[in-house]
Amino acid sequence: MTDQRVHNPLKPTFAELGARPETVTALSAMGIDRAFAIQEYALPIGLRGGDMIGQAPTGTGKTLGFGVPLLDRLLSRDEGADGTPQALVVVPTRELGLQVAKDLAGAGKTRGIRVLPIYGGVAYEPQVDALKKGVEILVGTPGRLLDLAKQKQLKLDRIRALVLDEADRMLDLGFLDDVEKILSMLPDDRQTMLFSATMPDPIKTLSRKFLRNPVTVHAGHANDEPGVSPQTKQVAYRTHQLNKLELLARILQADGRGLTMIFTRTKRNADRVSEDLDFRGFACAAVHGDLGQGARERALRAFRSGKVDVLVATDVAARGLDVSGVTHVINYDCPEDSETYVHRIGRTGRAGATGVAVTFVDWEDMPRWRLVDKTLGLDLSDPPETYHTSPWVFSDLDIQTDVTGTLPSAQRSRAGLSAEIEEDLSGKSRRRRKGKAAPAAETPAPRRERRRRRLGSPSGTDAPATETPAEPVVAADAPTAAASKPRRRRRRRSGGSAGAQPSE
């Protein structure tokens, strides 16, 4: 959900659109009174219980577009709910799931609606315990939902409403099989809603097999065009790979820059760019799929709280991530297609705020970029060849001409990622093998005593501990049994002869 505290008296209120009085009260407490376009068009259809395909630019409040109808159809505990999930929201990423769950919980707070985010990368036990206590709305990623269902910990046979958020991603080849398995567990008599900023025609065709007479709702852009916020200033520069970092360091010193997101194509590149910027004095963090859930949440918390003001991410963070105050988005690597571009730059220019989107285009990326430009009608098909000394960079982005590639020490005021504590979400410390008690504290083993043997005693037999060990006999008239044993070698004094005996 995006920040809707930008009031527009021409827009209808949620009460006028038919939302429950309790929901209106909860939204008002969050500073939300009037609806955005997608909410204005989607709420009447959703409140009637009809299936729907909703498409709108990022940052225009799609979460409440399906969230308010969900809350209207649910029973709370006071209304007789028994704790079995009644609504399901399926999302492609963990970060989006946490965000949607937080927004729905806020909108249903006055009625005590329980919302549970379910995602991988963390321990099963807390999620299973929450399911046993009872929830009304589940927000989950496909993998963890299926895992819990296979373990008989999750029942979906009473779901009244299903939402596929970021539906174009949910119905592509990577998630389609999992989505179909989840759909097979749901009752046929349900409401189904699909929402996304981009909805290619093949995805629309595929989605209709899951919906019954759906109504398609467009808000903020033409029917055949992905949504790009008009509040975002978009520029593109043709850059050399070896000069990108120098150019990036100067853009990060633009006047009025707030929180900034930088997108790379690979996880390795995200780590490298983050480390290089940290070396140059910028407070930054990286988010990508190879990080554990605790590390990802730590980076996002630090970014939201302002301890770091630069977040370097792969496209895992472009889907639905909403952070207030993001003023700049920089495509360090050229996006693969128009849908990726829309979702990336949609992190800024949200809820009526302005933003800046900068795209670096390498020479080898020019065919891909021209296709993106043609699809979206950006009129940026021929970006100028640009280096960190190019004068138009400073004028385009309000950068002082005397900045260097390193942030001055006087401007390094952020606490940094190290100021944010990483939580252990694995649950390993609580896991014990079934039937085995926790191991007791280890005690050091007793030290083994070494004993000298009497000369002539049976091999391997130690002398009694109470007896004083005898000195070995090496005289010529030693007993026959002792003479049959190998002669013990003695150290010679330095300078002594080979046959000399050591003196007493």
Would you summarize the structure shown here?
The chain is α/β, with parallel strands linked by helices and 504 residues long.
Characterization of the model:
With 504 residues, the chain is an alpha/beta fold. It folds into two domains: 21-218, P-loop containing nucleotide triphosphate hydrolases (Rossmann fold), CATH 3.40.50.300; 232-417, P-loop containing nucleotide triphosphate hydrolases (Rossmann fold, 3-Layer(aba) Sandwich), CATH 3.40.50.300. 29% of the residues lie in helices and 13% in strands. The protein contains 16 helices and 13 strands. The chain has helices spanning 21-29, 37-47, 62-73, 94-107, 124-133, 142-150, 167-170, 176-184, 201-207, 244-251, 267-279, 293-305, 338-345, 366-376, 391-396, 480-483, and strands at residues 52-55, 87-90, 115-118, 137-140, 161-165, 191-196, 215-218, 232-238, 259-263, 284-287, 310-313, 326-331, 355-361. The strands form two sheets. The chain has a seven-stranded parallel β-sheet, with helices on both faces. Strands 8-13-12-9-11-10 form a six-stranded parallel β-sheet, sandwiched between helices. It starts with 20 loop residues before the first helix and ends in a 21-residue tail after the last helix.
